[in-house]
Amino acid sequence: MQERDVFNQGLMSFLQSSPTPAHAVLTMTQHLQEAGFVQLQEGDEWPFQPGQGYYLIRGDRSLVAFRLGHESLAEAGVRMMGAHTDSPCLKVKPQAELVRQGCLQLGVEVYGGVLQHTWFDRDLSLAGQVYFRNEDGLLQSALLDLVEPIAVIPSLAIHLNREANKNSEINAQLHLPPVLGVATEGGAGEFVFRRLLASWLKREGHLLAEVIDYDLSFYDTQPPALVGLEKEFISSARLDNLLSCYIGLQALLATDQPQASTSLLVCNDHEEVGSASAIGAEGPFLESVLRRLSGNEQQYQRMMARSLLISCDNAHAVHPNYPDKHDEKHGPKINAGPVIKVNANQRYATSSETSALFAGFCAAAGVPCQRFVVRSDMGCGSTIGPIAATRLGVRVVDVGAPQWAMHSIRETVGSLDAWYLNRALQTFITQSDL
Ligand code: ZN
């Protein structure tokens, strides 16, 4: 097996084991611990040892990990990589139980920009955090993943809506609650979701008295797959943006040789809903870590002036069936390398300087790269790059692997592109000059 195939297998198993941001953070910390990274707590005094790797978790769903270099931070700056842990999904409401037409259903809230029609007719499972009181009355939490398909959102038959292929408006309140079962005779009143949750937790060995609260979302149980005549594509849920989390993690883990400069990975939750939260990119998480690392204001400012953040988030590849959705000169191709995202209106934080630097890392890594600019008559998406640039005043380049079907329950990337981006990031963090 080629190195790239091993890498892609690792990516696919990461996607599979990370149905929610909390699972992604847990999986990443397991990799970090295996590589000797030490967990820090925000409430403790931090010991710093050059060459050592450290990581912090906020809210179970955002992560900062770094390996200290041997040069002073003020002299060498920090080579930073950023991504987001969240993906659009359907979250279970607090009072979720619905019994309609004899069917047991759960009310759901739409998280982020879900491409809703793709969620129909899928074998859905449920995962996330549950808070419960144990038998001694203490509050505890558990990470739950049911793995098995337990729900489906059935489509309406075309016979009942002849216009379905032309016009099928989805009302999220009415049409998205997944069906979990059929109410049994006289048993409709028994459908208490928290009780169901308690029985699932007990089956996993938790000693609990009562479920208090939860943050649970549905996900597609179909595992990631290599697709195409020559396996050119990776098809999976949550490629946006767990692919970037995985690539950033692998780049950071590859820094096991003594490095001159410090390298850092930040993976934030809440990008899909605008990043404004205590654990999102607009919050103080990354900045507070950097300030504590630097020691004092003078050092902090010197360090930031010499740093660069590569913000990684997937880019829209040109679609062969919808080619007119891209600018004719800026339609990124699948398997043609990382995409540098440019927007004059600062929806992306890339500058000509940071674009040139990133193109240089790609060239040094022997990897192709491409550039994306949205059509002039269309609005442009955004990501954590401009938010981090605004918050920190640091140089940022927005890049990402090209993909199709962004925010679908099942997205597609090229099987070369994750590897290409990984090579470019590894060159970045082992490169001495910025
Ligand atoms: Zn994204």
Explain how this protein is built.
- The two termini are 35 Å apart.
- This protein is of the alpha/beta class and 434 residues long.
- Helix 2 runs parallel beside helix 6, helix 6 (239-253) packs parallel to helix 11 (417-430) and helix 7 (285-294) packs across helix 8.
- It folds into two domains: 3-87 and 237-430, 3-Layer(aba) Sandwich (Aminopeptidase), CATH 3.40.630; 89-220, Aminopeptidase i, Domain 2, CATH 2.30.250.10.
- The model has no long low-confidence stretch (mean pLDDT 94).
- The chain is built from eleven helices and 20 strands.
- A hairpin with a 3-residue loop joins strand 2 (53-58) and strand 3.
- Zinc ion is lined by residues 84, 240-241, 271, 313-314, 383.
Write a brief caption for the model.
The chain has helices at 3-16, 21-34, 73-76, 172-175, 193-203, 239-253, 285-294, 297-305, 352-365, 384-392, 417-430; strands at 38-39, 53-58, 62-67, 78-84, 89-100, 103-111, 124-134, 139-145, 179-182, 208-220, 225-227, 233-236, 262-268, 308-312, 315-316, 339-341, 370-372, 395-400, 402-404, 411-414.
How many domains, in number, for the residues?
A: 2
CATH superfamily annotation of the largest domain: Zn peptidases
Please list the strands of the largest sheet in the order they lie side by side.
1-2-3-13-4-14-18-16-17
State the CATH topology of the largest domain: Aminopeptidase
Could you give a short account of the major beta sheet? 9 strands, mixed
Q: Into which percentage range does the β-strand content fall? A: 25-35%
Helix content: 25-40%
**Shape label:** globular
Bound compounds:
zinc ion
Question: How far is the first residue's CA from the last residue's CA?
Answer: 35 Å
Q: Could you name the CATH class of the largest domain?
A: Alpha Beta
